[in-house]
């Protein structure tokens, strides 16, 4: 991985994978936010395992590059433009993919975004932007896809990329939105089970991807110490978790959130900006008096 914190296409084409090469042969995967980070790694892995991958997003240049990178390596891929915040474009794009491909087996919701800032300083516009993208946008994708499966009398699988909220600081808007996604996923895992639809979440911890470029170097330097394993994960780690839930290995799993945190959800803390002095002082070793 380069200093831009981004895998090259050649790296994604050759990274070791634990799955059989034809595991997903004949399946169709739709990956929102598939042009970068975790979504990009997941799309590459699904394609390498035999799936036809359709990546979606708002920036056509990134999606074209993604499709071309996959097809250049002999993999099956296409793209569709959509804004997850716009229900009409979501409905239209997913219906078009379903009609063109004849099936969709898995939807991976990786699209989203946030910015690090103390919650007391959020503007109403900033708050709404994160909620509308991460919570409302994921809902649009999930419900639209579920309706298509229902109408086609075909089951399917949804994997939502969320965040591991425990100990994650200065992105409270994203923590709130993703907590809503987890709660909604747990609820519809029950409601949609009779339709043959499984719904699960994957919660990454400190993952070394393009998003790291937005953080100050001293913030990034602390990340390996945010979990008991004292290291950071990669988008490939998260991608393999998504495949586990999507493949036959996950056929009896629904309504779950799989933590990919190095144990950080049990012990640790991630400050996406400078850690306040108050908490630095609180965690210092206190020397005994006398």
Task: Furnish the topology, listing elements before pairings.
Elements: H1 9-14, E1 28-32, H2 37-48, E2 52-57, H3 60-72, E3 77-81, H4 87-101, E4 106-109, H5 124-152, E5 156-161, E6 168-169, H6 172-191, E7 197-204, H7 217-222, H8 235-246, E8 257-260, E9 270-271, H9 277-282
Parallel strand pairs: 1-2, 1-4, 2-3, 4-5, 5-7, 6-9, 7-8
Amino-to-carboxy terminus distance: 51 Å
- Category by helix and strand content: alpha/beta
Strand order of the largest sheet: 3-2-1-4-5-7-8
Q: Do you know the CATH architecture?
A: 3-Layer(aba) Sandwich
Q: Which assembly state applies to the chains in this document?
A: single chain
CATH topology: Rossmann fold
Unreliable stretches, pLDDT < 50, 5 or more residues?
A: none
User: What is the CATH first-level class name?
Assistant: Alpha Beta
